[in-house]
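User: For documentation purposes, I need each entry recorded in a consistent format: the amino acid sequence on its own, followed directly by the corresponding structure tokens. There are two entries in this batch. Please keep commentary to a minimum and don't merge the entries.

Assistant: Recorded as requested. Entry 1:
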Amino acid sequence: MAASGVVAVLRAPSADGFAAVADVLVAAGVTALEITLTSAGALEAIGGLRRQLPETVVIGAGTVLTEDDAKASIDAGASFLVAPVSVLGPQPVPFYPGAFTPTEVYTAHRAGAPVIKLFPAGGLGPGYLKDLRGPLPDVRIMPTGGIGLDDISQWLTAGAVAVGLGGPLIGDAATGGSLTALAARARHAVDAVAFARS
């Protein structure tokens, strides 16, 4: 997940279009995908993508809110779990809980979360992450929610281990929109990661 720099968050009314979207993302260099459980058919999509994509691509489940969600996601093939809040205990795969305040971030870190999802991050800005990492330099943070393609480099430079991108990256591609436009956005995101890390 950290190697990709970008976690593509796939959320749509139905997961039917996720296979085509995933092919485009991976071809562009995005190698971390989060399939949200709020999408109908998400568990089936996780299993299908695990069979479809190379082993170098990590596929996780998002909006995991219960232990039943977690078990079903892992059984489907998810290699990581993400939630918008801190609701679950230890899991057999990496779990990235959501947090917003310094206390929430630190509490999740102390509970053993390898990465904290800073959510919703867009209204906070990269400066918030930089300030947060001052007293908490060892906490690995993935800002998600309200982050645009042009914000990627700033967040990574501020100390993010990766950024989660939904709508600004996926657009309407999962519901019949242009896959060509998706490819251009994905390349833009990958280039932004490379720029920030150069």
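Entry 2:
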Amino acid sequence: MAVPKRKMSRSNTRTRRSAWKAKLTPLDSVTVDGRQVRIPRKLTKAYQKGLLDIES
């Protein structure tokens, strides 16, 4: 495991942490059972095949 040789300043630590952000999942519009639903792109085929349920 990497161990720092010197103490990192508070401003440098916070800058580094603030630069890392999770991105929102891209959503697709899909028509399932006659209604328009926005779901993650990875799950589009599963919803269309009926493998996953959509909560109302």
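Summary note for entry 2:
The chain has a mean pLDDT of 83.
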